[in-house]
Amino acid sequence: MIEILDILLSANFWAAALRIATPLIFGVIGALICERAGVLNLGIEGIFTAGAMAGWMAVWLGAGLWGGVFVAACAGALFGLIHAILTVPLGLSQHVSGIGVTLFATSLSYFIYRTALPDVSSPPRIDAFQPLDIPVLSELPFIGPALFQQTPLTFLALFLVVATAYVLYRTPLGLAIRAVGDNPSAVESQGLSVYAIRIGTVVAGSAIMALGGAFLTMSAFDAFFFGMVNGRGWICIALTVFASWRPGKALIGALLFGAFDAFQVRLQTEVGSFIPGQIFLMMPYLFSIAALIVVARRADYPRALLVPYFRGQR
Amino acid sequence: MIRFEPRGPVPVSRVLSVLVAAAVAALLLAAIPMAFAGLSVFGAYGLMVKGAFGSMFAFTEMLTRATPLILTGLAAAVAFRAKLWNIGAEGQLYAGAMAAVAVGTGAFGGPSLFLIPLVILAGALAGGLVMLGPTLLKTRLGVDEVVTTLLLNFIILLFVQMMLEGPMKDPMGMGWPQSEPILDEAALPKLMARMRIHWGLIIALVASLGVYFMLKRTVWGFEIRAVGENAAAARHSGIPVTATFVRVGLISGALAGLAGVGEVAGLKGYLTADLSPGFGYSGIVVAMLAGLSPVGVIIAALFIASIFVGADSMSRATGVSNYLADLMVAMSLLCVLVAGLFLRFKIRLVGAPAAKETAK
Questions:
Q1: Which of B148, B158, B330 sits opposite A289 (nearest CB)?
Q2: What are phi and psi of B270, to 5 degrees?
Q3: In a domain, B192, yes or no
Q4: Whether B143 and A99 lie within 8 Å, measured CB to CB
Q5: A46: nearest CA in chain B?
């Protein structure tokens, strides 16, 4: 018991939780705004992979780190555009199109990586983002190491949470986004284009998702590995429901998830010899399913989620 | 401006021609990554055709690869018919394979006549049971089955790794994480001498005919189609929607489980954690290419299998990454999605051309 408290009270633990949560924050925010506009984006798993590969490769080819981040976002936006075109004006099944985008983005990323680097024994490394050592702040007890020794991408993620909340709830654009996800014909009757708003939102959301992938290769690690996304995208889709499509709750959900994951890693070092490692590796997926079950009964889905809108009908 | 006008029932010939057009479009699009990798496009396609159809061995290899794809394709097709989004065929395949290993490696003895049906039943049951969880979560609590089936894929694969390092590990396996071999009496017999093609193919073909008749000629099939068309309307007209979902889930999972049985008891002979190179996910592509038709699944699986086998062989000859095959399969899915529009809608350009039409 004391040991558990020790873990929970250590700054390193919370630093790890925030680090694990960062890609999920990007992913959940991206998924959340797509769904707020009425489009489920199951392309997320592939968009993560594409962002991870594109960002890493841009830097490896000589771009700056922020250049890499930009390239990753563009890659995400591109795959988002494919999903948006298939599901919004063409009105195709969002489930199947999303899976299609995931398969396409993943295989294209792997193919480009393998074609550019035909046979390397160990994946080449880049100079990844380093923790921001902010002079006075990072020396604060507890909060200092937990918060101010993160890399810039973590701060970008936190900033995006605030920005998304502001845009969604405080601007006309946000109102329009939420309205196309709840009642698209009302938006059309106001003279706005449902198609334009949905497509734009899905593209922007996908760009944000891709940053989660970029965090993996440019901050958490410094190289690209096959299978490194490992279901994180799907976890984000589950967390989006858990967060009831609200940016603030999304942040809390991602942090809780990060804390659980950081905790089980530490637990593993304590009792790892008695329990097979795979049990611990299963935990994130089991947490996600549990999170879905917990909120299932009161989940308040955007009303027009999954419903294609055809101009001029009704 | 483009306008879509809903279309009534479409003749089968039109469905076929649109699906074939989608497959051809995907093959043409694949020329772009081929050129990017520095291949001569015609040469590469030549190598692929040779790799999938160039010899008796190549042809049987292609059929062997199509076997699990028919079954996972059926698993997706039957579930999608009821709009039950089972994306978990990959995990259900592994569950089926694990069950086959559990009963087929010496836990039971006896003649083939007893052991082979036992292995098949165990695999189907395991796959079905794995899908039962997400189905019940959907019908009882309203938990979205897409996410739960996707996440289960990861959980089951980790479980397989755990079993292969623990209780299911072959003590004679030189330390490799693999299961004990399936008994000879429990293995699905080969169809041809010196080839890898096995009875799993027959099982897959029978399964697709079975699913075809079930959907077309039985009450269950009618209920599945009705639920898929409009679950609310089906409920109002007295169709047991929940029971239908559970039934479809069990059938879909069982079909994916059978794919695992075939791979373990027909092809490999033992279980490893890399048994399936994504057959569960490719099954979704197969089902969509087939227009969710159980008989069409056979043809679509042959198409996808020839891409995989052909690209493998081309990749060995040219040194180009065989992720090209996955890329081509993904492109096929996107192409067939777009092509589906031509079936559901009349697509016409509105604006200037339309004005001309009215002038006439």
A1: B148
A2: -150, 170
A3: yes
A4: no
A5: B330
- Is residue B327 assigned to a domain? no
In which element (H, E) is residue B347 found?
strand B345-349
The domain tally of chain B equals 1
* Geometric angle at alpha carbon B264, from B260 and B270, rounded to 5°: 140
- Residue A255 lies in domain: 2-118+151-296
Inter-chain residue contact A42 with B334, CB threshold 8 Å: no
- Asked if B39 contacts B318 with a C-beta cutoff of 8 angstroms, the reply is yes
Predicted interface score ipTM higher than 0.95: no
Specify if B111 maps to a domain. yes
Handedness of CA A182, B138, B291, B95 (dihedral sign): positive
Q: Examine residue A132 and state whether it is found in any structural domain, yes or no.
A: no
CB contacts under 8 A, B 269-298 vs A, are 281, 284-285, 288
CB B154 to CB A278 under 8 A?
no
- In chain A, the number of structural domains is 1
Task: Write the pLDDT tens digit of every residue in B58-72.
Answer: 999 999 999 999 999
B272-278 long-range Cβ contacts below 8 angstroms, 24+ apart: B272/B164, B272/B176, B272/B177, B272/B178, B272/B179, B273/B157, B273/B160, B273/B161, B273/B164, B273/B177, B275/B93, B275/B94, B275/B97, B276/B68, B276/B90, B276/B93, B276/B94, B278/B90, B278/B326
Q: CA A119, A122, A124, A128 torsion: positive or negative? A: positive
Cα A103 from Cα A92, distance rounded (Å) = 17
Q: Is residue A30 part of a domain?
A: yes
Closest Cα partner for B320 from A50, A105, A112, A225?
A112
Rounded Cα gap, residues B28 and B31, in angstroms: 5
Dist. CA A128–CA A216, nearest whole Å:
10
- The answer to whether the CB of A285 falls within 8 A of the CB of B154 is yes
- Contact between A111 and B137 using a beta-carbon 8 Å cutoff: no
Contact yes or no for A233/A44 (Cβ under 8 A): yes
Nearest to B89 by CA among B128, B139, B141: B128
More confident residue, A312 or B287: B287
Q: Which of B85, B137, B133, B104 is nearest to B262 (CA)?
A: B104
- Residue numbers of the domain that contains B213: 66-290
Residues A261-274 pLDDT 10s: 888 888 877 776 67
Cβ distance A276 to B36 less than 8 Å, yes or no, reads: no
Task: Determine the average pLDDT of the residues in B27-34.
Answer: 92
This prediction has a pTM of 0.93
- Please check whether residue B207 lies inside any domain of the structure: yes
Residue A138 lies in a domain: no
Helices marked H in chain A — which ranges?
2-8, 11-36, 44-60, 65-87, 94-116, 143-148, 152-170, 172-182, 184-189, 194-215, 232-242, 247-271, 277-296
Question: Taking CB atoms and an 8 Å cutoff, what residues of chain A touch B324?
Answer: 111
CATH of the domain at A162: 1.10.3470
Q: Which residues of B, range 40-99, sit inside 8 Å of A by Cβ?
A: 80, 85, 87
- In order of A101, A104, A139, A298, the CA distances from A224 in angstroms are 20, 18, 33, 39
Residue of chain A whose Cα is closest to the Cα of B3: A311
